[in-house]
Specification:
Blueprint: E1 2-5, H1 15-19, E2 24-26, E3 33-35, H2 43-54, E4 60-64
Antiparallel strand pairs: 1-4, 2-3
The structure holds iron/sulfur cluster (SF4).
Amino acid sequence: MHLEIDQERCCAAGQCVLVADDLFDQRDEDGVVVLLDANPEGDAAARAAEAAALCPAAAITVVGS
Ligand code: SF4
């Protein structure tokens, strides 16, 4: 799986970090998402897909399998 994030869309809700703190972090200064792993596999890929579905700003996109 390949992930992309859009920091312009991110509203710093933090749902992605709650689901997958190994894949996503938030900037200290404003809470905007930081992608830690753009190519998760296995269980991590499943959690990445869940994070993309939960993100209220649609800022996480799965661009490949
Ligand atoms: S869930 Fe979406 S809006 Fe919230 S921090 Fe993550 S990417 Fe940003």
